[in-house]
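ESCALATION

Customer reports they have been waiting on this structure for their group meeting. Please prioritize. Original submission:
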Amino acid sequence: MLTSPKRKSRLIVAVTIVGLALGAAAWGAEPTDSKTFYKDVLPLAQKHCQVCHRPGQIGPFSLLDYPTARPWAEAIKNAVSTRRMPPWFANPQYKHFSNDRSLSQAEIDTIVAWVDGGAVAGDPKDAPPPVPWPAGGWTVQPDVTVDLPPYPVPATGVIEWQTILIPAPFKEDTWVTSVQVLPGAPAVVHHMCFEFQKHNPALPYNVYEWMEVPRDDDGVALAHHASMAPSARGIEGWVLRRPVGSTEVTRFKGRQTIRGNSQFCYLPGLTLEDYRPVNAGVLVPAGSDIAMGLHYTTTGVAAVDRTKIGFTTTKTPPARKVISLGDEDEISSRIQDNSKLAIPPYEANYLGPPADITFKKDTELVWFRPHGHVRAKSVRYTLIHPDGREEVVLDVPRYDSNWQLTYHTSLLIPKGARMHVQFMYDNSPANRNNPDASKWVYYGGQSWDEMGTPNMGFLVDQNTKREDIIDER
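Update from on-call: job pushed to the front of the queue and completed.
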């Protein structure tokens, strides 16, 4: 059939319009394998990120929904592709940890593809149910809470480690199954640690107490040996006290009387200790006190810290109880010679005094929590078996004091084994956290000093005593 030129022209125009329309529709449609926020990215954020990236937490933006996440898409891509986020520093070559928060390569690829594809929202109906995060900044909804007294932190100056005694909130014997320390002003809180103690009527409540530490103009302790460290609270010296709400400080010669250890801690990157997944807890006798250690640092801006502590509890005794190794009185005097910690200026690979812990009977190790300051570079825990065989059980090749993580595991340690722990330090200009590479660095409690504390946690049956487990020497 012949077609007139006019009709042919109209046909060509019609076909062209249809083709353009189909092409435009194909261009505007999402490819079948494209990644969307609600379907692909939000489940990863819930699993790995929202614990920090939600209102009231340390993350600088929220990942609870698309509108708050979308402006940060390129930053998210950069952080996950370089493995800076989520923060996780254990070398996967040696051990798997049950709380490993790192992303798999497939998960990283998913986030990168989402950003490269335009960071589209997708269909909200594809979103998983929201995580029921508790209100008030808690990660786990506490059964009982305690408010610490407000603490005014000045803009500048050195604040020594302080302790304060407050009554525990339990009027009857109680099993604590999780603890969360929630700082009110995280920027000024270096750390907070506490333990439960039997009530001593001779000690005052709500009074800050600390040791006087003579320092030079740079804030460095004048005596560079372990006895000047804040952990050495059994030494003689000037003890200072200040009642809560008062500016009046009294001094007396002697030993610090309010003393605690690191049974529970807040550190940057660590807010929650949860023993429920392993059916364990800590028994707190009725009428106990909380001996709280406080370490504040000044930032150039005055702040008032209002820290809260939250507990989950049970009246049914768990199968096992938690025992912590790492109170620093024992570490500094019995398993590490911290007086030998002296990092030279510009030294990039300084090995600190090693720690050695010998086990007297079979036990189960369930967490590591290495602790150092801004010049700490790496740490390695090596288990030396009774037959001499060596096994690396935790290797942190890139330690970061901004993220002092706990690494959860289940490691059966035989009687006669020994744990050897080695920290390395970087006092060179290449260390971006280093405040001054030209200074000698010694053991001490301030962030410009250094530590290398090999904290560990163990689970034991209810009828096992701590002294039956470990011999530290």
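Sent to customer with the following note: The first helix runs from residue 5 to 28.
Escalation resolved.
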